[in-house]
Design brief:
The chain has 598 residues and is of the alpha+beta class. The protein has 2 domains: 140 residues, Penicillin-binding protein 2a (Domain 2) (Alpha-Beta Complex); 320 residues, 3-Layer(aba) Sandwich (Beta-lactamase). The protein is 35% helix and 18% strand. Strands 1, 2, 3, 4 and 7 form a 5-stranded mixed beta sheet that branches. A 5-stranded antiparallel beta sheet has the order 9-8-16-15-14, with helices on both faces. The protein has a two-stranded antiparallel sheet with strand order 5-6. Strand 11 and strand 12 form a beta hairpin. The longest helix is centred in the N-terminal third of the chain and has 50 residues. It is elongated and about 165 Å long. The relative contact order is 0.10.
């Protein structure tokens, strides 16, 4: 930059020659220089303001566009930036109908290793094996001294185990926070709850997912943050469940049974107040599914829902109820049950080859006559029998809110012949679960309306389509009551509570080769109480029971399932708020089925 001198010599000399003041020239040049500097500063400022204006315009344009995009986008939960924050570890509690905890979350820690940061891998491996005996020292040492950079050691630690690992003092052993599923009641209601495990895992969090039972059925709901971790409220009553499991366990061992199941259901709402299957398991330490043998031998097998059996004479009340509803008979109609009765080339016999002769419909149910029930079924016919049983729910899984219920589909005959109609009328030729039977008896007990079993607490009756008239249902209730007071379920009477029900003893089919075992049975007692105004259905089923108190082993339901069901009713009726009828209370009754030790 060339600057103009303030006192140029030529102009100074000219001014002096003309007698002018040379200082005026300097002042004029200073003024011009200042004006030039001011113009340059103004232009620089204007350029900067223009650039700044363009920048702010662009920024506001971008921000405005982003706000427009967000305004037209569905809202989503913000995610933290820490590692593992995208793994949703929270899970809602599961509670019983009174709000008592059945499943909840428990804060714990996982243990992992970074072998490259270890100082003493040999010493660490030996110390870990002492804390966790299930670990293999050789395997740990190989992992610690190899090329691995990361290694899970334990997914869940108790506080004592964490402290013991901490005392090892190895910097290569690290802890990660975890939430695990806890079932504070242990084995109680194990088949309903099912269990949970870890899904996606990170160092700082792990996903808890349901693996069976209601935990898996409602997995999305239990993990949904939109639910605000609101507890899942079940229809189960923890006190009733504990009492039934206790009596059932004692009864199973007294009766030398291979397995047992019990269901208590509200006949108006379909609420399952208790459902038990033995043997059971602890969902805190769920065993692995079997890879060989019969799946029903596993404690994971839910006999109440997955177990599909021929339930014997418990079906006879359905045949009688349908025949009465169709006005083919009434309870006083006389039917000849004398032999022979031959259908489809097969003779229909009675238990122990009895011949009851001429019986009324009521007596057929009381004495449990196969031929009498079969003759009623022939009057009904295959088509109408199929329609009736379908209305009762015997053609499809129960739909109970556990994943295992899908595997409890009834086994139906391929061809529904007259022979099928007769055998199904007394509980052979159609296999169903004890829960199906509970729903069928509930329809009788509530006045003729179908109900769907549910594990969710209901606030009002949930009655479905009508399957029989109220008058027919009431007659069937009276017949069930007569079975207890006069028939095969005499040991089912409970002082103060009028019990009605029907026994069922079915020979157990062989796994291979067809046919039935002669010394293995499935025994069932299907009961309603109080029978004068039924509120509950109770089903008790035993797998291969043998009652040995007498001279000969007894395998019928009257000697096995009935007394255990009576003891259950005696225990749980007060818990259900049922007041005993003091006029009916008598001394005596079964008091011996009590669990003394596990």
């Amino acid at each position: 930059m060339i600057r103009t001198p303030l006192r140029p010599l030529a102009r100074i000399l000219q001014a002096r020659a003309k007698g002018e003041n040379p200082d005026a020239i300097e002042r004029e040049n200073i003024r011009l220089r200042h004006e030039e500097q001011r113009d340059r500063s103004r232009k620089r400022a204007e350029s900067r303001l223009l650039v700044l204006g363009v920048f702010f315009f662009a920024a506001f344009t971008v921000i405005g566009a982003r706000m427009g995009v967000l305004a037209n986008t569905d809202p989503s939960e913000p995610r933290a930036s820490v590692a593992g924050a995208d793994i949703l570890a929270q899970r809602a509690d599961i509670v019983d109908r009174k709000g008592r905890i059945l499943a909840t979350n428990f804060e714990t820690h996982s243990l992992y290793a970074q072998p490259q940061q270890m100082i003493e891998p040999v010493k660490t491996a030996k110390a870990l094996v002492k804390i966790f005996p299930d670990l293999k020292e050789e395997r740990l040492l190989k992992d610690f001294t190899g090329k691995r950079k990361f290694l899970w050691i334990k997914k869940k630690l108790s506080p004592e185990q964490k402290q013991a690992v901490h005392e090892i003092g190895e910097p290569g052993l690290l802890f990660g926070p975890r939430e695990m599923r806890l079932y504070p009641n242990g084995n109680l209601a194990a088949h309903v709850l099912g269990g949970a495990s870890f899904g996606r895992e990170g160092v700082h969090a792990a996903e808890v997912i349901g693996v069976a039972g209601i935990e898996k059925f409602y997995d999305d709901r239990l993990r949904d943050p939109a639910q605000g971790h609101k507890p899942l409220e079940l229809s189960l009553d923890l006190s009733v469940q504990a009492a039934i499991e206790r009596v059932l366990f004692g009864g199973m061992h007294i009766m030398n049974a291979k397995g047992a199941a019990a269901i208590l259901m509200d006949v108006h709402t379909g609420e399952v107040i208790s459902i038990a299957s033995l043997p059971d398991f602890d969902p805190n330490n769920r065993p692995r599914p079997p890879t060989e043998g019969n799946p029903s031998d596993s404690p994971l097998f839910n006999r109440a829902v997955q177990g599909v059996y021929e339930l014997g004479s418990t079906f006879k009340i359905f045949a009688a109820a349908q025949a009465i509803d169709l006005r083919l008979v009434n309870q006083n109609t006389v039917i000849d049950t004398s032999p022979p009765l031959k259908v489809g080339g097969r003779k229909i016999g009675e238990f122990k080859k009895k011949n009851y002769g001429v019986l009324t419909v009521a007596e057929i149910i009381i004495k449990s006559s196969n031929r009498g029930t079969g003759r009623m079924a022939l009057k009904i016919g295959p088509k109408r029998q199929k329609e009736f049983l379908k209305k009762l729910g015997f053609f499809e899984p129960t739909g109970l809110e556990i994943v295992e219920s899908k595997g409890g589909a009834p086994l139906l005959p391929k061809r529904w012949t007259d022979l099928s109609t007769v055998t199904i009328s007394y509980g052979h030729g159609l296999s169903s679960s004890p829960l199906h039977l509970a729903a069928g008896y509930a329809a009788i007990a509530n006045g003729g309306r179908r109900v769907h079993p549910t594990l969710l607490k209901q606030s009002a009756p949930q009655l479905g389509a009508r399957v029989m008239s109220e008058a027919t249902a009431r007659t069937a209730q009276n017949l069930l009551r007569a079975v207890v007071t006069e028939g095969t379920a005499s040991m089912g009477e409970v002082a103060g509570y009028k019990v009605g029900g029907k026994t069922g003893t079915a020979d157990k089919p062989k796994e291979r080769g067809g046919g039935y075992y002669k010394d293995k049975t499935i025994t069932t007692f299907a009961s309603i109480f109080p029978s004068d105004k039924p509120q509950y259905v109770l089903i008790v089923t035993f797998d291969e029971p043998v009652e040995t108190s007498g001279r000969e082993p007894r395998r019928t339901a009257g000697w096995t399932a009935v007394p255990v069901a009576a003891e259950i009713i005696r225990r749980v009726a007060p818990l259900l708020g049922l007041r005993p009828d003091m006029d009916e209370i008598e001394t005596g009754g079964l008091t011996g089925i009590t669990l003394t030790s596990n």
